[in-house]
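step: validate -> pass
step: tokenize input -> pass
step: predict -> running
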Amino acid sequence: MERHRINVVAVVTILFVFNAAEVLGVDPDYYVSPNGNNAWNGEYPTSQGGDDGPKATIQEGINVAGSGSTGNYKIIHILNNDGQGCTYDVNSTILLDTYNYQEIIFYQNVVVKGGSWFDSVTYKPLFKIDSVHHIRFTGYDGATFRMTKRPGYTTYNGCHPIRLDGCSNVEILGLTLEKSRGDGIIVRSGPPENILIKDVDCNENCRNGITVYTVDGLTIENCTLRNTSGAVAGPCAGIKIEPYENFHVLNNIVMRDTTIRDNDGGEGHKQLGVSVYALVGDPEPVDMVFERVTVTDGPGIQVYGIYDNGPEGSIEFEDVTVESTHYCVDIRRKSYLKAGVSFEGCKFEETGVDHNPIEIHPENLVQPGDLNFIDCEVFDDIARPAIKFFKGSYDTLHEIHGDLYVIKNECVGPLVDWDGATLDNVDINVYSPGCCKSFNIKDSSGNSVALFDKLGNLYLKGEKEAGRTATTNDEFIFGDDLVIIDTTDGNMYTDGNVSEDQGTLNPQGDNNFIVKDASGSVTAYIDHSGDLFLKGWLYENSKPWTIE
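step: predict -> pass
step: emit ->
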């Protein structure tokens, strides 16, 4: 009897090891293998005899797994070939449109390859995630979705590796998405909600690395979007956010720690593009933040089409670097009445020879403005303004604010060009340490409170105020209290006029206060009436001590 009991226990132990999921009532994982068979049940990574073994195709693995539940994803393993890389050839779209709570894990060096069928069709994705929720694609260590872009098949046909429609809580992690004749990922309709794209490499696609039409909650993190080319009319961007209906939603979009490089940006498009011209009438507000993004080796950033009747909201660029580009920042058709655009802590370097580092183009279609440049830096040695406005039929530029530092090896040319526009609350301070002081006024601690630079700009710590009688705080007094600069608050007190952006300056008569550059040319002067003339601009509430 004792021996019999021992044998029974041994058999039970073997069952727990061999098929624990079945004995314990736990949902099994599911497996797809290059050595699989769709007649098998998919519950084992290798053949166990009979119906027990992996599926042969990804679609069958998805279907047999079915839906999981909250906290209990169905896991589908897309296996490689005994630890080596392998290719799954696919000749129809793989659909995720029925089952929720699924995680699909693509093993090391697994390639899911779109076959020749995708050469003969249009707008057919490799994977379509449609109207389902809680889907996770995980694929590191070389896991790749590869399409059919190759010599002879390079033009756009709308066949993307991944397309998202009406889905929610989708995560795409660690995959390489390459060589499509569409976009790497297209976030298309619904809108999709709560999408995470992380550690993804979109490489050598035709139209864009990532396209976003509409979305409510999108995070793109630690991705690389590169080498996009082939769409004749563009955009050929790393990412393009481009709604095409006025009911589309662009809410809670965050891109961070991502590199965008070597994308063609055809037909005037840029590598990072936000184009919202379709959002007119009564659209939803937009909400986008780009953090610690690098845009390099190709055209830079474009914000396009915020019309006078466009969306409220904000588009923010924080600690973004644009370098080695032939077009740096292009603000086009941006109305001051609607969503604001801000750049904070951004750096613009090696910005090319054909365009100013920052350009503002209303194109006769909007009342332009509402831009902030907060502690941004421009590195540029070309004799041109760092910011240039092209006014067209709109004579007034509105609400341009912030502090922009222009680093040049030598002092050449004006730092801004407003194209003769009327300025409405334009108080951006544009500094250039390379265009250092010609005349400096300091407080008792040795800090600058007013500085005339070599370009004829005057930087005030404070503001221009109405004239008054001099006091003991006043370090600079011209004439009979005609112009006074208070070293306590940095205010300039005068009843005279200020004339900015002057051409050649020719002081008349005697008793003028004159500032000259090293060549002897007059860059600023105060005449005997207390009027101030500047070749450059008066900057109030600025930081003159930063450019001493």
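step: describe -> The CA atoms of residues 89 and 113 lie 5 Å apart.
step: cleanup -> pass
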